[in-house]
Amino acid sequence: MLSDETLVHRLGGLVGGEHVVAGSEASRYAVDGRAPRAVAFPGSAEEVSAVMAFASAEWLKVVPRGSGTKMALGGIPARVDLVLALSRLGGIVDYEPADMTAAFRAGTRLQEAQEILGRNGQFIALDPPDADAATIGGILATNSSGPRRLRYGASRDLVIATRLVHADGKVTKAGAKVVKNVTGYDLNKLYIGSLGTLAIIVEATFRLYPVPAVEKTYLAPFASLDGLKRLVASILDSPLVPFAAELMNVEASRRVAAAAGLPWPEGSYGLALAVGSVRREAVDAQLETVRRMSREAGGADGHMLEGGPHDAFWRATRDFALGDGLQAVLKASVLLTKVAEAVRVGEEVAGQHGLRLGVISEAGSGIVRYYLTGDAASPERFQQAVVESVSRLRAFAQEAEGNLVILKASPEVKSRVDVWGPVGKALPLMQRSKAEFDPQGILNPGRFVGGI
Amino acid sequence: MEKERIAKVLAGIVGAEAVVVDAGELRVYETDGLTVFKAMPDIVVLPQSTEQVAGVVKVCHREKIPFVARGAGTGLSGGALAVEGGVLIGLNRMNRILEVDYENQRAVVEPGMVNVWLTNALAPRGYYYSPDPASQTACSIGGNVAENSGGPRTPKYGVTTNHVLGLEVVLPNGEVVRLGGRTLDPLGYDLTGVFVGSEGTFGIATKVFVRIMRKPEAVKTLMGVFNTIEDASNSVSGIVGRGIIPVAIEMMDNNAIQAVEKGVAAGYPLDAVAVLLVEVDGPKDEVEALVEPIKEVLKENQVREIRVAKDDNERLLLWKGRKAAFAAMGQISPEYYVQDSVIPRTKLPSIMRLIGDLSQKYGLRVANVFHAGDGNLHPLILYSSANEGELHKAEAMGAEIIKACVDMGGSLTGEHGIGLEKRDFMPLMFTGDDLAAMRKAKKAFDPDGLMNPGKIFPTAKAGVEVGAAGQRQILDKVLGPA
After folding, report:
1. Which residues of B touch A439 (CB under 8 A)?
2. Residue A312 sits in which domain range?
3. Class of domain B3-90
4. A202 to chain B, minimum CA–CA distance in Å?
5. Are A157 and B158 in contact (CB < 8 Å)?
6. What ipTM does this complex have?
């Protein structure tokens, strides 16, 4: 095995000595408490390729990293030799506004990309958590998405081409820079959400959307979940086309409303319906219908949001956090008809364990996020409560034909419960895919499903 | 293979009446929608359940017999063409809708179900299934999954892959697995996503979990008549540039208009150089609000005439011409050869000019009918095989169009697939390493390479005869030797 000194020296030769970090500084890049021997910051796809060719020759275990906002996702890594940080690999590659496609290097922060595209009234229709800091590569590797997927879909629907560096350093592309293409296999799908276990995404091309000229949201308080459940069902069964529909529990709606500077009735659940269009009258007409339906379903008078408060509300929703204390974040995917129930079960479980819980669900997509927090003074009790909550909520999600994933938890929790949950009979197929793309098992080992 | 013994084994699984070995009956399965390619399977089996499919595949796997799955046989790239000496698995008998769940906006269907049947079944409740390839009254959902089929509605609603959330798959070793399902973000790799569009080389989908959607409150269709292709093309960019995402933007040139008017009399002006069909949908107030800005864009681009369909009948009439365009070609030419390449939308005027030049050079007429909204061309090269060498010329011209599209940053195919037809074009777009990555995915699904062999990947050596016209030699001539 290479000595640490040689490792740093060799990496320096590939990316420049000033772009390699080791020793105590490298421990700041620890994954689940496991510090890498070195961190490399390549500045080009060619340098990423050179680093991977080297890692492959030396059998180094590599953890790719963007800006680090989602490093808590995934199982505890089997071993971390090298963190491959893509933060220097940023910027736009090409952009033709009239074609509504744009390519960015993986280390580009989504926010940066949106600023560039926004000058032409366009955007990448993704609004994942931590959108200010999160990088495009990280968002794709973790298949991170947000409320807007109801209208625009997720990464799998928006990415048309990727450029990859493989475990052995080979550089390939997948897809094409046109919005419709069936030439060969759609490997983009395989790479998106693979948590860097098959190859490292170094560039991605998106189909873009126009920024709607007008966007507004109706936010209504509800005393009970029952009325909300009926309302969501009737909205989804109507010709209304909201781009987001969020159902929140009492804790979450109180905090989000406060963050947006809105008065909020004590003890209320919340439903936020967002509509966008090129025409104001089209937005207003839809939201008036929503307001009427909401009242009929027993909702109290709500807020019609636009401009600053609208943006503040959605930012607080996307980047929801419960403040200080020990934290864990879970994400369930369930049938649409089970969303309200998933919120209720979450509250029941949290109540039993004395946990504070915020729940924000994408009611039209079946995605439910649970934000758990507990007293920092008794970490063991919190860990135990999270482990038990995961089992209980996972059982519910599976019953609702979905799954539950831990987005964020301490290594102590992760060592006691599977971060992903069971994959079923497709696991051997996934293992074979991994073995084909990364036969040495050097890309992110142990962090993906089924121990991949 | 020992045909008789295998046929008997297969009959034990699917029943004797579901095994075809008679040469006359087999002829039905000799070709798919691209009739220049022909290949005779040894045996055709027509299973009726997942268990039967798995049983048949297990036999093929055990005996190392190559096999091909086939839906309705409407594919246009030779993707479902049988392998000589192999088994063809016809899925038409698995054609049921298994489940419709309106509240969760999902349906589960069998692969042999005809695309439009689903929308028809959902219509009374005000729902529909979005992907609508031109062949939707015949093509099967399983075939749509294999080809990742599109259709006119893709600019707003996407293609098959955006609407398929899960699959039950019989793998090439006969194992049955579930990929994805009725909920989003299934765990692990997005195997559903990579299976869709794998052209029947990864396995056989025996159940398809699809998203169904609420019908929009209102739909509006406009037709613009233009004196130049350029103006029509610029209108497309202009509409999108205003932040409007139409459901469909379709264009037809004069040759296409001539054919369509002779065929179905849709009311397109015979002297128009191009017509553009634009459709928007959504809530009533929004749709109403979109008509004026679209008209403005058309006027800015010297539109000669605008027609806005006043009701559903007028709307369907405008669409009738577009939908019948391929079939109507018989009115102006005995045969046609259609290409399916894609270009970035802004390259529309230049590629149209180039196609015009090529038409002169080869002395063959071309009718253009295409999805202008996403740059997906369908140049129909008109020829007659009665004229010595014309098919060769048509294929050579098609090859030049494809090459030009790729040079403009486009793609070989937008919705018809690579199949057998375009496999030797793959190196135009992909390097050896790119293709090697695709082979890895293939190997994970089909390590023995038994399923639909010979498709998608380029042939190794030059001079291999493919199809009636010896495509490899044409390619060598047009593109330079491989």
Report:
1. none
2. 214-316
3. alpha beta
4. 15
5. yes
6. 0.97
